[in-house]
Each structure stands twice: as C-alpha cells, then as structure tokens.
Design brief:
8 strands; 8-stranded mixed β-sheet; 338 residues; single chain; 50% helix; binds NADP nicotinamide-adenine-dinucleotide phosphate
Length: 338
C-alpha cells in the first residue's frame, strides 16, 4: 500500500506555518500522532517528500522527459555503432545494443546496456532500432532478427553508407506496421571525432505511419542530429547512391590508394599534402568490408571506378607523350617535329 504524500513526515517544521514555540509543540504532537497511527496500521513509508504519480506536476515532468528522450536499440555494436551510441548517451537517451561479438564490458564503459541475445534485446521494446551492421552482413542479420518481439509501431533505421540496398531490404522484409527511416551520417569515428558542425546527415523518410506520435518520434530522432550541428539533407536513397558513387566512393578509393602507398609527413609538407594525409586518416582505418560494400552495393560505383581509371590513364599518357616528344626531338632533331 502506498503512503500518500500529505502524510509525509518532515522532521523540521515549515518556517511558513510553524513559527512560535506553541505552534512548534503542536506540530511535534501531530507528527508523533501520525507516527503511532502508522505503526498500528502497518503502513510502510516508501518515499518522503517525493513527487507522487498522481501529482500533476510529476506527471508533466515524466511526460516532458519521455518526450525528449528515446530508447534507442543499436544492432551491430562495432566501430560505428559505438561511435553513435556515445553521442546518444551524452544527449540523455537510453541506449541498448546487441551484436555478433560480446561487447558487454565496452558497453558498460559507454553507459549502454548490452544484450548478447537478440530476443532479450527486442523484449526491451526500444522506440527506435538502428542497424549499424556492415553493409555485407545486413541481409543475413535481418533474416535472423526476431522482429516479432518488438513493439508493432517500432521505428526501424539503418546507417549504411549505401542507401538503395537497405531501403529495398526493409521494404521487402519488414512487417508493414514498422516505420522505416534510412539515414546516412556522412562522417565516421575519424572524420566526426570532434564537432559534427556542418557535417551532412542524409535521410529518407521511406515509410512513417500516420499519427502525431509516429511523426514526432521520427522528427525527434532527426532533431538529435540537427542539434549536434549536422547539415540535414533530405534525399531519396536512389539520388544518394548516385551522388555518393562520385564523391564518397571516389574519396575512399583515393584514400585507400594513398594509404597503400604508405605516405608519411615530410619536413616540407604543403597544405595540399597535409590534406592528402588527412584523407588517408579519414578513410584508411575503415574496414575493408565497408569499402567493399560501397563498391558491391552501389550500382553506380563500378562506372565511377572506370572513370577514375580512365582519368588516371589520361593524365599518365599526357606525361609520357610529352616525354616521348622530347626524346624523339633529341634523337632526330627539330625537323622531324613538322
Ligand atoms: P563495418 O565493418 O562496415 O561493420 C562492422 C559491424 O558489422 C560490426 O558491428 C559487426 O559486428 C557487424 N558485422 C560484420 N559482419 C557481420 C556478420 N557476418 N554478422 C553479423 N554482424 C556482422 O564497420 P563500421 O565502421 O562499424 O560500419 C558499420 C556501418 O556503419 C556500415 O554499414 C557502414 O557503412 C556505416 N557507416 C560507417 C561509417 C564510418 O565512417 N565507419 C560512416 C557512416 C556509416 P561485430 O562487431 O559484433 O562483429
């Protein structure tokens, strides 16, 4: 049985109501009376001066807290999953995670509750589930994932660096009652280790059910990125992949090539060279699975790779053509030029 707030036994008289000695004595007698009434009725004191659930003030503050914090479930607690979780936790959200590998101790350090078992994870009923698995493993992860244990109105997201592929998988595989939001933070643990100011966050509201609650939850998640400083870019998954092939895939390819060359700082490094080194820094540490996923699951990537190869060949042939002309002139004299 709950003890109601008006019975709360404050030991000090309130300065407003008990000022004189006689009124103080009156107060002490009342308190003593309440204590003995309590003993005889076997009531137990569970909270003193605490806000009670029937308080409209307490109810309002619970509602306000729920409105600004989400319970976010991360599937795939690797490099990027952990990076994202840290920011969610710092922003006051409750984060739970599950992954193929056991990350229990890392999760404790990050303030995240880790579940080795996918069923247990889903039974926590997160508001939002974000797939942070590798591009290559998304399909098999979805096949095994116990969606039936989630709440029917869960918002399901992904952060894959390609977008048409997860969108199609979600639309084909997820039951109709789930909302779908495809996200791509265009930065990672290296490029986004400091501020996220002006870093692009691409999103496509693929399927958000009607009703204020669903719309607001989706907007609330997006507002998290906005308040971190991200530049919010609403774009279809198809357009994302078209643009990303000629920007992100090329960036990663060049970063990998330069990383493979094992470039290092020199005492006369120019600003241009420094930016090449930082390109290597921002791309070369990503897993090869990630890079291979950018290639395999973006239908535009092979065309861009061919264009890059062609451009390299053209630049190289400009150099060698001029060199050949020079050698020819040296060997055969100027007459031959005409
Ligand atoms: P990743 O190598 O692309 O993915 C690693 C994650 O995938 C880990 O959580 C890993 O789980 C899981 N995984 C790999 N193979 C699996 C399998 N066979 N079955 C189940 N899970 C498997 O590296 P990442 O950098 O962490 O990227 C994660 C996602 O974020 C990718 O989709 C990537 O495109 C996206 N993303 C990354 C960046 C970035 O800069 N890194 C930026 C934006 C978006 P375990 O650790 O448990 O093995």
């Amino acid at each position: 049985m709950h003890l109601l707030a008006p019975l709360a036994l404050t030991t000090k008289p309130s300065p407003l109501t008990y000022t004189s000695k006689s009124s103080n004595a009156l107060y002490q007698r009342r308190v003593a009376g309440k204590r003995s009434a309590l003993k005889s009725s076997k009531l137990c004191v569970r909270a003193i001066d605490a806000a009670q659930p029937f308080d409209s003030e307490a109810r309002q503050s619970i509602r306000a807290r729920e409105a600004i914090t989400l319970k976010i479930g991360i599937v795939g607690f690797g490099n990027f999953g952990q990076f994202l979780s840290k920011r969610f936790v710092a922003d006051g959200h409750t984060v739970i995670a599950t992954s193929r590998t056991d990350y229990c101790s890392t999760a404790v350090e990050l303030g995240v509750q880790f579940f080795k078992d996918g069923d247990d994870f889903c039974e926590e009923h997160p508001d939002v589930v974000i797939f942070c698995t590798s591009i290559l493993s998304l399909e098999s992860t979805l096949e095994e994932f116990p969606f039936q244990r989630l709440r029917r109105d869960t918002l399901v997201c992904d952060v894959l660096s390609v977008k048409q592929f997860p969108k199609h998988l979600f639309v084909q595989r997820l039951p109709k009652h789930f909302d779908i939001l495809c996200l791509h933070p265009m930065f990672g643990p290296d490029s986004g280790k400091g501020s996220w100011q002006d870093l692009p966050l691409v999103f496509d509201k693929v399927r958000i059910g009607e009703g204020d609650k669903r719309q607001e939850r989706c907007n609330h998640l997006l507002r998290f990125f906005e308040t971190q400083g991200c530049r919010m870019v609403e774009m279809s998954c198809e357009e994302h992949d078209r643009q990303a092939a000629s920007s992100q895939f090329i960036t990663h390819t060049v970063g990998r090539m330069l990383g493979t060359m094992e470039l290092s700082e020199t005492t006369i490094s120019t600003k241009g060279f420094d930016s090449l080194l930082s390109l290597v820094d921002n791309t070369y540490h990503d897993s090869f699975d990630l890079y291979y996923g950018l290639f395999l699951y973006n239908e535009n990537a092979s065309t861009e790779l061919a264009r890059l190869e062609l451009a390299f060949d053209q630049v190289k042939s400009q150099l060698f053509c001029r060199l050949h002309e020079l050698i020819r002139t040296e060997h055969f004299g100027k007459d031959l030029e005409t």
